[in-house]
Amino acid sequence: MRLHLPITLLILAATPSVAPERQPTAPVADGPTRSFVGADLFGLSIAADPQISPDGRTIVYVRRTGDVMADRMQSSVWLIDVASGRQSPFSPQGSNPRWSPDGTRIAYAAGDGEGTQLFVRWIATGASARVTSFPGDPQALAWSPDGTRLAYVATVPGEATKIGTAPPKPEGAKWAEPLTVIDRVNYRNDGPGYVKPGYDHLFVVAADGGTARQITFGRFDDGGPLSWTPDGRAIVFSAIRGPEADRQVMNSDVIAVDVMTGTMRTLTARDGPDAQPRVSPDGSRIAWLGFDDKRRSYENTQLYIGDRDAGAPRSLTASLDRAIEDVQWSADGRSLYASFDDHGQRRIARVGLDGRLTPLVDNVQGGGLDRPYTGGEFSVARNGTLAYTGGDAGTPADVWVMASGKRRRLTMLNAVLTGSKAIAPVRKIAVTAADGRSIDAWLATPPGRTPGQRVPLILEIHGGPNSAYGPSFATDMQLYAAAGYAVLWTNPRGSTSYGAEFANLIDKNYPSADYDDLLAAVDAAIADGTADSNNLFVTGGSGGGVLTAWIVGKTNRFKAAATQKPVINWISEALTMDNTLFTSRYWFAKLPWEDPMSYWKRSPLSLVGNVKTPTLVIVGSDDYRTPVSEAEQYYAALQIRGVPTALVMVPGASHGGLAARPSQSAAKASAIIAWFDRYRTPAQVAAAR
């Protein structure tokens, strides 16, 4: 029987081994505190998936709120009257709400027993009905144009592979579990874990309920979003199919399936992903996202349109030099709405069929809570009213609406909590790299800091490495700032939202000069008068964990470090990560056994002989993206060298879910703060407390 704790902290100091130091008992609070603390993570809410009704009068959205008893972010569904901003509860649980074409009903997924099922709510009466009973957790819901049917994606269980047979089992005997046979190249996924037998396929069910009918088959995974043709005869989707499907990484195609016969037609054929297809309102065109795969670490995802069969395709955003995240047609079919990241901020623009862009919204935010990644979602009504998740660095994402060129905030989900807390102010600072490039960076400072006062600095590095931070609310940054640290985050070369050339400056060369960009940002924070140059600390997760370990192998400027879910040895990572084919195909020119030295030279483990910085190592116990063995290698190497270190294991956490449970997110941040406090100038610690 295993004891489940919010976080397991194994502290083994440098040789000789010593017991963990005793932490002082925290004083019992005799009243509310203005500081942002770990317990506040349970009080936060974040808006997601806002879906505006066809007439633009009502928005249904998903509200994710911390549940202190379940230690999870729980999802409920809410309605908002656009004119008044008045909210009303729709469902105490649920996700993926979608309006019927006539706006009279909403389909959504919700738990029912052990699984998730599809429900439909009639708005006029408030009555709901379950319309599926299939144990496949329906996703990617899509109404037929006439509102009589619903399409969705669900997993069809399969038979496990067997090799050989066990001897006959006597009746009543208690034997070990049977052998597990793995024969798929991608046999586990971060989050879900080891792949269970079966594949994702398309289903159609009557909107009033009844037997669902499977319409795609085979040993392939079919995915959403799903888009019906206006006549209701076909559904367009994307998938990787064909005899070598399991050996493809990104080579998906746009496919049309006949709803009655199941006959499929592949509409695109190129080396590269074609995904997220959207049929135009009149059915004369298809829009989708994709790019030509050049085996580089990064390509801009472009918006394409073609005829009704995706023929004569052309890119509408080739000159934008930004990656399109999502796209939706306007009601008249004469333009599209697209979201993309630009300089660390998600934006929405209208894209004409001639490729001309009209900016609409520049404050889109959403997604996670722990770190300030770009993100956000939107939908569009027939009259052009835009619903989206937006916000700023002072609060998690809320629901916003834009109509007639004016934007308006409809929810203030965290006003009570943030109004009672001293939230760290965030501002942008100017950074110039060694080669003269401008680098975006943001700085959060401790609430109540006196202007001109120098404080300890934490450099927080984003993962990816092809991703981006921005001026968004983040609990890690707020907790660090409340502990007396200034927090610096930046988008070094390799980051997205600055164009393909900037992102590919680290192609087949990561880590490299991104290290110099990060140190230039630290120097800018010192020159700014904020950072105490004698109290510098560094942390980051995933790609940020790689760079944290790389930094302490290159310099001794930092008093302590915390590398989270890092890659330490590219050879072992390439052969143990969940997407087995990815690393060696896109981040290196050759396979690990063909050119092992190129992998080694870019591995932080190759620099461990230089490390003197006390370094904390953090990883989720169920991380299959940068597996636990990566963190353990680094921890062991630091122990062998006698460098002060500790290994933090987050039980049950995947790579993407390291901060998914509020207690673990708060405990992880607390462990990092405690580690940094151990090596921070004592007077600074006392002043902060």
UniProtKB/TrEMBL annotation:
GO terms for molecular function: serine-type endopeptidase activity. Residues 1-19 form the signal peptide. GO terms for biological process: proteolysis. Pfam families: PD40, Peptidase_S9. Keywords: Hydrolase, Plasmid, Protease, Serine protease, Signal. Residues 471-679 form the Peptidase S9 prolyl oligopeptidase catalytic domain. The keyword Phosphoprotein does not apply. It comes from the Bacteria. InterPro entries: 6-blade_b-propeller_TolB-like, AB_hydrolase_fold, Peptidase_S9_cat, WD40. This is S9 family peptidase. The keyword Zinc does not apply.
